[in-house]
Amino acid sequence: MTSNQANVNCESMMELLSLQSPLYQPGVFWQEASKDMVEDLAKNGIENFRRLSSSLSYFVPTYGFPGNALSETAVRSLKDWLAAEQLSQKQSDYLNQLVTGYSAALADYRTLAASEYAVEQQPNLLSFSESHIGDPIEHFSIEGKFYSRSALNYLLGLSFLKKHFDLTTCKRVMEIGGGFGTLGEILHKVLPEAQYIDIDIPPTLCCSTHYLTQIVGEDKVSSYQEINAEGFTELDQLKPVTVLPSWMIEKLTGKIDLFVNFISFQEMEPDIVQNYLYHVTRLQADWVLLRNMREGKQLRSQHRVGVDKPIFSEDYARMLPDYELIEKNVIPFGFKTVDGFHSELMLFKRMK
């Protein structure tokens, strides 16, 4: 798919989105984000979407700028200072690794490696190496493999999950708000027999479709246009990878083994999340793996972007009455910010 084709398809999907129920349209956080992304993609194309400013602000996480909360000016000043100081090579390398985020990435990788060595179950998550599709601004090489923050976030989550669930028995995974498709790439490479379904809103949907098509090949990806034309609804009819717009979840029938949401639920209003989790329950997910902010997302009234009503950890148990909370985790598999917020993993299991 060329950049022009992707832009036309994205514009068409945005028009369709505007016709849907508010439960399937962007919440207040993503209303603003979507405008920025559509403009950015139209201007710069989709081939380098992982380095566009809107992507980095909303759905392509980084360890260094801008994810480390330092301004571009501050980072430049630090680098200028490093260049001007008479430091030894060791001192310079050490400080450079802090500024670029490599030290933080290495810490997450070491956690992943320690967890994998301790559990010693297939699939081997350490065999994964991320592609360069989308021209990432930040891609760290560790022990001969490539990792972004997005990849390490998901790999840590899957390693956490392996403590409770034999992933080799997992045949169908659904994700809502899958970013640019990282989980789909991981499953394709370490658990190739598993089917992956990503439900999302445009324009992120356009990026993940482009990304995953490049990863697995166009013949292995079920698109909205194809499914709409064929009238497919049963999950068994779908290809190994499927990327669908939010409103299509209503039409799907069948059963999923694992449902995943990493971070995007916290950016939605509670009624939107409640509706999605109703469908997750309807599709009889055996396991539900969430990663969200324990304290809830920032309020729109206090920031340029945010939510009107945040979702807290305890809200998920209320929205999943047919599920039992198995475990919560912030350290080592989640993340605690320097200002005391907790990005928390929560694992639920369906009660028989």
What is the element layout, followed by pairings?
Layout: H1 3-17, H2 28-44, H3 53-58, H4 72-84, H5 89-100, H6 102-119, E1 140-142, E2 145-147, H7 149-162, E3 172-176, H8 182-190, E4 195-200, H9 204-216, E5 221-222, H10 224-230, E6 241-245, E7 258-262, H11 270-282, E8 287-293, H12 313-319, E9 323-329, E10 335-336, E11 342-350
Parallel strand pairs: 3-4, 3-7, 4-6, 5-6, 7-8
Antiparallel strand pairs: 1-2, 8-11, 9-11, 10-11
Helix pairs in contact: 4-5, 6-7, 8-9
How would you sum up this structure, described in words?
The protein folds into 2 domains: 3-63 and 103-350, Rossmann fold; 72-100, no CATH class. α4 runs antiparallel to α5. The protein is α/β, with parallel strands linked by helices and 352 residues long. The protein has helices spanning 3-17, 28-44, 53-58, 72-84, 89-100, 102-119, 149-162, 182-190, 204-216, 224-230, 270-282, 313-319; strands at 140-142, 145-147, 172-176, 195-200, 221-222, 241-245, 258-262, 287-293, 323-329, 335-336, 342-350. The relative contact order is 0.12.
